[in-house]
Amino acid sequence: LPVxxxxxxxxxxxxxxxxxxxxxxxxxxRGFIVDxxxxxxxxxxxxxxxxxxxxxxxxxxxxTDNFVQPGIVYYYRIxxxxxxxxxxxxxxxxxxxxKTSGIILSVSPNPASEFINLFIxxxxxxxxxxxxxxxxxxxxxxxxxxxxxxxxQLQLSGIVKGHYDVIVYLxxxxxxxxLIIE
Length: 182
Description:
0% of the residues lie in helices and 65% in strands. The protein is built from no helices and 14 strands.
């Protein structure tokens, strides 16, 4: 085998799930695709981690899934990809974060340039989202965003560089976070 993958684990923290794994040997390893599923059978790619290439030394890897809802079981697998794009699948691991007592709003990347990924945990309600500049002017509004569906991508075209507030309106209240656009 071109890669000997060992110790693959998924561990839930308060607001994210940390994936860790190691290899004992790598030959022409380009990297790892991180897949996630809600049912353990239909997986979607959520990340990429570069491999070491070729080494006989132990290599340790990690990936943090920050876009998880509390109380939901998530299933993960790693797809190792070599330089010829051949793939090898890991075993499947699962994890679930605990229930939270409140709404958590995440925006990434931050600083951003072309888009942001918006993720809201702790609610199943629809959200109205605004991006407001430091003078209080509305730059972008999106209504009826499903908070439970996962990551919602907002395009930032037409918004100039600067500091902004992302404001999320939910039946539970109004939540804000800071955003920098470069």
